[in-house]
Specification:
alpha+beta, Translation, Eukaryotic Peptide Chain Release Factor Subunit 1, Chain A, Nucleotidyltransferase, domain 5, 4-stranded antiparallel sheet, 13 strands
């Protein structure tokens, strides 16, 4: 996964693991269009009401958390463009807090919650999926295109075809009818391919394409090489789907679950495989903390591989150093055998190089 997403996941995981003694952990979520004045008034009311809590410890902890939120809110004259989420509460005797004010996805809920755990949903939705896929479903009468980002399907376009049915009009010769029908089908397939190119090759470019539809139609489309070569070369699978609708797109995702699950780690797996291959050939790689740092100092890193077992702060520093020189930083999961091997053998640090450093 990309390290910016890793950092957010790490912060979310930390918040998820926090537990309060009773309902002492406070979550405040503010969407972009909500005034902070109203939020401050709500915090003041909650602080006053907390004085009525019977338990001395709970009352103190809740008011400490609310006081911390008050102070954190003072840093903002207005609600940030993507909204604001603040967490505060006493965990294991220490007052903890966290602020999210620059999420990639705007906060879409107004929330005040005091519970035994933090409500992470307002920030969890901002996690950017590492993979985005193009979806195409065709039947004789229509086509549907969409994008799959994480668990979310965005329907991009649906349109009807003008392809005639198999029954010809009276007076038409069979050959003439078939020629006209083939022409209409060809134009329809070209229309679908053009729409796919516009939809899937614009930023962000999709990481793969999944085709579905009525068997004969989708097979003709695939075998006819209508798709742009960058999309055609990244077809992950073809599945039978009856209807080219939004529901058909959902059905396509369900049927392609296995290939999507496998593709989720493809980039990581391919980079690791390349690292081990180049290493075995005595090629341009670096591994271990010292050698990798030297490669970074020389500006030689093309792809930096970092185990997710290393400290998040270190991962952030390594990402900055890599991206500053135009390289890419990938976080390698230790949940896989290859990732665990990479972590154990090389201390979780390695790099594919642009040029040798020896």
């Amino acid at each position: 996964m990309q390290t910016t997403e890793y950092e957010l996941r790490d912060r979310i995981d930390q918040l998820t693991n926090y537990r309060g003694e009773g309902t002492e952990l406070i979550t405040v979520a503010v969407p972009p269009d909500k005034s902070l004045h109203a939020v401050r008034e709500r915090i003041d009311r909650e602080y006053a009401q907390a004085a009525n809590i019977k338990s001395d410890q709970t009352r103190t902890h809740v008011q400490d958390a609310l006081g911390r939120i008050r102070r954190l809110l003072q840093a903002y004259k207005e609600t940030p463009p993507s909204g604001l989420v603040i967490y505060a509460g006493v965990v294991d005797g220490e007052l903890q807090d966290a602020v999210f004010d620059d999420l990639d996805v705007p906060v879409d809920v107004s929330l005040y919650r005091c519970a035994a755990e933090f409500e992470i949903a307002p920030v969890e939705q901002a996690l950017t999926p590492s993979e985005v896929y193009g979806l195409v479903v065709l039947e004789r009468g229509r086509a549907a295109l969409g994008r799959l980002a994480g668990e979310r399907i965005v329907s991009s376009r649906t349109f009807e075809s003008q392809v005639m049915g198999k029954s010809r009009a009276g007076g038409q010769s069979a050959q003439r009818f078939e020629r006209e029908r083939d022409r209409q089908k060809h134009e329809f397939f070209e229309q679908v391919a053009d729409a796919a190119e516009q939809t899937f090759l614009d930023e962000p470019t999709v990481d793969g394409v999944i085709l579905g539809g009525t068997t004969i139609t989708v097979d003709e489309f695939q075998q006819g090489d209508y798709l742009h070569h960058e999309l055609r070369d990244h077809i992950l699978g073809v599945y039978p789907i009856e209807y080219a609708t939004k529901q058909g797109l959902s059905q396509l995702v369900e049927r392609a679950e296995d290939v999507l699950s496998d593709a989720e780690r493809r980039r990581e797996r391919e980079s690791l495989d390349r690292f081990f291959t180049v290493l075995g050939q005595g090629g341009d790689v670096a591994y271990g903390a010292d050698e990798t740092q030297t490669a970074l100092d020389y500006g030689a890193v093309d792809v930096l591989l970092v185990s997710d077992a290393r400290p998040p702060a270190e991962i952030r520093e390594l990402e900055e150093a890599t991206t500053d020189q135009g390289g890419e930083c990938l976080v390698v999961s230790t949940d896989t055998d290859r990732g665990a091997q990479f972590d154990t053998a090389f201390g979780g640090l390695g790099a594919l190089l642009r040029f040798p450093i020896n």
